[in-house]
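Ticket closed. Logging final result for TPM domain-containing protein.
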Amino acid sequence: MLGSLKFIKVGLFALFIAIYDVFANSYILENKNQILDKTAGFMNILSSEVFEKTGVSIYVVALDSLNNKPIKEVESYYLQNLKSPYVVLFFVKNDKKIDIITDDKSNEMFDKNSVYWDYIVPLIPKKDEEINIQSVSAFLLNGFVDIADNIASFYDVSLEHGYLKRDFVVQSGVRLVLYIMLFVLLVLFVYVYLRKK
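Final structure:
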C-alpha cells in the first residue's frame, strides 16, 4: 500500500514536470484560434528538436487582428524577451500580414523571401472566405517546416520530425525533361499527321 502511494506521488510529480516543461518551452507565443491544435503541437515538437540540435528557437505568433496598433509595435511586444538566435513566424489574419522576423544571427541561415514566396504564398487561398483555421495551419506549417529544414541544413544536422526538402534543381530538371518529351511527341504527331495527308 505504502509502495503504491509512493509510486503515485512519483508519477504525479513526473506528470507535473512534463506539463510544466511543455508550457515553459512553448514556441507558440500566441495563437488566437488561427492554428489547429495538432499543427501547433507539431510546431512545438519540431521547434524543440531544432533548438536542441542547433540552439536556434523558432516561434510562431498567430493573431486575428492588430487592434489598430502598428505592426512593429505588436511585433516588438513579442520579441522583447526572446534570446538570440531566434526566428518568429508572425501572422495576422484580418490585417493580412505575414512576416518572418529574424535576429542578426539567424538572418544568414536562410532566405526569407524564398520561404515566403515558395512555401507560404502558394498555399494561401485566393478568396478571403477560404482563409480559415485549416488553410492558415497549412500555409504557416509549410513555411515553418522549410525554416526548420534550412536551419538544420545550415548546421548540417538532420531532423527526425522534419520533412524532406524539395530539391528545386531536381524538380527543374524533371520539368525540363517532361517539356522536351512533350515537344518531341507533338512534333512526331504533326509529322505523322502531315504524311497521311
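The chain has two domains: 26-166, 167-197. No further action required.
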